[in-house]
Amino acid sequence: MSNKKEESSSTSPYSITENVLEERQQHHQYGRISTQLYAGVLACLSALSFGTILGWSNPVTHSMVVDEEEVGKKHLVWLVCLILIGCSLGVTSCTFLMKQMGPKKALRALGPFYILTWWLMLIPDIDVQLAGRFFLGFLGISYSICGENLLMQTVHYGIRRYITVFHSSTMVLGVLVSTVVGSATSKFHHTLVCASIPILHYVLIQVIPESPVFLYATSHVAAAKSLAWYRGAGNFYMDMANIKKDWDAGRQDSDAYRYMLLSKVVYRALLTVMGVTFFQVCTGYFIFMFYNMRIWCHGKTVYTPVVDSTITGVCFVISKLFWGSLHSVFSWKVRGLLITSCFASAIGLTLLALYQLLDALEVDIIINVDWSPMIILALFLFFYDMGLNYYPKILIFEYMPFQMYKRAFSIVHASFWLLSFLNIYTFASTILSVPIYVVFTVLAGITYAGTVFCYFFVVEPKGKSLIQIQLEFGGNPIGKRGALFNQTRHTV
Fold first, then answer.
1. What is the pLDDT of residues 82-129, one digit of tens each?
2. Residues 384/388/393/399 CA torsion (nearest 10 deg)
3. Among 289, 340, 367, 472, which residue is least crowded by beta carbons within 10 Å?
4. Per-residue pLDDT reduced to its tens digit, 167-180
5. Distance (Å) of CA 116 to CA 51, 122, 173
């Protein structure tokens, strides 16, 4: 009788030995693939929807100018960039909401307000438009982060490494869809297409269970059932054990993040990531995304609005998808690619500044090669996505103890969108008073400075333990990587 009791307790999903867990996990490998792909599709839909928000302002503001609507310059500037303030505030609010409700319930709570806000954008009043832009950014980024968290906490790392390639690309795909549809159709049809994506997503999320990581805090059984739904029976034991380890460690030292943030190794690492994020934004990536080819065409179109939007959007998508695929297969040294990415991006910005200068001087040869800035932009995106647009998130993951990771991610992510707002606002405010070649010269200079920053301050994390990294930052090691870190490490 006692032997049977011991046997039943050992097969519990949160008390089973690691050797047995590994055998079971290896036997079924990835588990039920269909439900995990379903979760991946949902995450991609939330990112796609967020991308349509970022792409919305390009055709809409352009049509306002072309149709000579009575919208002041100040309102146009805010209409373009107010979304980014909403994104910055939405990051921290979403983190709190997921902690209280879980990512799935947060999606269900945000969904109706998010969909309603899209329909409010049809009201022609400019004040409603401005408020709508803010709340679209606030709700859209929250919706996207919740979808991404649900993906990360439910899908096996062997499948997730490939799904994340498409997930990271669907945001820029959403920008492409929004700009092309907005350029080709009316504002009503544009809004209808954009609103249909969160409506579809909201319907599809109803059938999935809540995140097992969130459920574990209140019910181990509910967490096991949730993970079994995604993975299939018998395919979740190892991850359940890892969830238990991280939860136990967090419960034993629930206030660890308070003293960790003030430790030398943590705040130096955080400042390093913030520095890389600053240079990531100051390349002007969102300027290209928001303004399209009109940057170097004095506000005019090169071919047609649809063709211009398609060409630029396709460059964004192909570059992101190409480097996302390579990063999912190969694991390169972070520091070297970051330095190369910074320097090559700065050269691209320098060439764009030079083109604009020669165009301003009305050099004849420039008139005959008006396609050259598109080639330069494609090369810029290629080198930008190689490192600057990928590694800041990875550095947070590698540098931070798991007790600090979520808070560090929120700080960096919110700062990213706030810096993006400052970048776009400055550009939109000065575009008519400052020559465009001056703007790109300044951006190129900042990016060259970013190359120097990465060379001197970024610590190479590849192949190193957290203690080794922290010793290189110059301080006493503190904290540890979570149990789930080893399950996801090789994806980065």
1. 899 999 999 988 888 998 999 999 999 999 999 999 998 888 787 888
2. 160
3. 367
4. 989 999 999 999 88
5. 18, 11, 23
Task: Quote the CA–CA distance of 295 and 333 in Å, as a whole number.
Answer: 34
Which two tokens mark 315? 């460059």
In sign, the C-alpha dihedral spanning 437, 440, 444, 445 is: positive
DSSP code at position 282: T
Say which DSSP state 303 is in.
S
CA distance 36 to 42: 10
Q: Which residues contact 356 (CB under 8 A, 6 or more apart)?
A: 296, 435, 436, 437, 440
Contact (Cβ atoms closer than 8 angstroms) between residue 136 and residue 121: yes
Tell me the average pLDDT across 470-485: 76
- In one-letter notation, the amino acid at residue 61 is T
Measure the CA–CA gap between 289 and 459, rounded to whole angstroms. Answer: 30
pTM: 0.86
Number of continuous H segments (helices) and E segments (strands) in the chain: 23, 0
Residues with Cβ within 8 Å of residue 277, at least 6 apart in sequence: 392, 412, 415, 416, 419
Q: How far apart are CA 35 and CA 9, in angstroms?
A: 29
Query: Rounded to whole angstroms, how far apart are CA atoms 169 and 327?
Result: 13
Give mean pLDDT, residues 206-230.
Answer: 90
- Name residue, tokens 């969160």: 198
The answer to whether residues 471 and 267 touch, using CB atoms and an 8 Å cutoff, is no
DSSP H helices in 400-465 = 402-430, 436-457
Q: What is the CA radius of gyration of the chain?
A: 24
What torsion do the CA atoms of 207, 212, 216, 219 make, to the nearest 10 degrees? 30
Q: What pLDDT score does 488 carry? A: 47
Give the tokens for residue 162: 């490939």
Give the pLDDT confidence score for residue 279 in this predicted structure: 96
Instruction: Say how far apart CA 446 and CA 262 lie, in whole Å.
Output: 29
Give the number of other CB atoms < 10 A from CB of residue 132. Answer: 24
The answer to whether 482 touches 246, Cβ cutoff 8 Å, is yes
Taking residue 362's Cβ as centre, other Cβ atoms within 10 Å add up to 8
Residues 6 or more apart whose CB falls under 8 angstroms from that of 106 comprise 94, 97, 98, 142, 146
pLDDT at position 370, please? 66
* CA–CA distance, 182 with 52 (Å, rounded to integer): 10
Q: What pLDDT band is residue 43 in, cutting at 50, 70 and 90? A: very high
- Separation between Cα atoms, residue 212 and residue 155, nearest integer Å: 11
